[in-house]
Amino acid sequence: MSAIDLRDSFLRTALCMRLGVDLPIVQAPMAGGWTTPALVAAVSNAGGLGMLAAARLSLDQLREQIDAVRRLSARPFGVNFLLAPPDAMPSDVAGMQRALDAGRSRLGLAPGATSLQLPPSPMNAQFDLVCQAGVPVVSFAMGDPGPWVDRAKASGAFVMAMATSVADALRLQAAGVDAIVAQGSEAGGHRSTLDLPSGVEAPLVGSLALVPQMVDALQVPVVAAGGIMDSRGVLAALVLGAQAAQLGSRFLLATESGSFAAYRRRLIEATETDTVITRALTGRPARAFHNEAIRAVDATAAPILGWPYQALAADDIYAESVRQNDIEWAPLFEGQGLRMARECSSAAEIMASLEAGLREQLKRLVGSPSVRSLTTLTKPTGPALKEQLGFPELSAVARKKKSFVAMNAVSSGLKVSWRLWVSMTSASRRVSNASCNWRCWS
Q: Helices 347-366 & 413-423, crossing angle to 10 degrees?
């Protein structure tokens, strides 16, 4: 197998092949108008998986967006649903509305209403539409998708769900999902917990720790998410055992996204310390830019309203902020990888940059003198592979592991060789503890 074949086989993971995509890159579904059909189609056309966000869309709007994606692309794409049920209706919203009236005054709006009424949820009808339309991928966040999985699979969809802890990921696997997105603490947007009682803090486990723990614990593929902005993050996710990486913030700077001008400038100028985890915007923990809206809510003695009443109370402010290009009172969800993207470009250009970066890094690593001899190995499997690489007999526990890396270890000695090289220190360039390294990557 040539170095080029090695790079191609490493990038086109088992999950890529199952989804019918060319690159291990998923565009995160971002509600609020940021994820447009043009963005989704452009990512899919470039070899990734584009995702629509159903949240905050009417049934007709979702239908129009699905149709628009299909007019622009014949490649696989998906639709995401948020499952978090409403918290108890607040008995008093007047105090919170007084705090929010500072934003209304800035934007020229009338004082906020002192009573709130949730509109009927369109999700049941939206889900029926997605199943009837045969959307290839259905994903869920912020709740247990158990009641929805069988119906989605019956329609032919591949089902994904997001988790912030191994415990939640195991519950999602038991519910029958086909792949799990590991949401690291660096990720922008809402924390995707299955259960989150009011007042309980959401898990905040970083991607570097979370992804390999999920890979070890699960039988289904893992997609890494959180702070990934360029090819280095995608490659790191693959080395950790994920079969793809999900990027959200990077695609907010795509010319096809619905992000407004001031939002884009803020993204370009921001640093990794400019975001916070807060309930102030929607009533659920979410990572966002720290702005006047959050500071006003934090400063009031009034309790934060539950999900999604906090967002409902400020809905007029959020909408007007976008119209007026005002970032101080808009809900600007954003991850922590902010310094790694400093310009706007098309989604196709972003995807091309990610692919080129991945291939260049793999070319550099595979072409290194330290691993050149490994890339000339024949393609042994099983005991023959272990003998060439100097591995002791695998333990029963190691043989039972079914992670993606272990499957690749059996099918391609070259992949194992490359991953082992990554785990070596630059000083020794030797596999000083082969047994440990094998178990770490199996």
A: 90
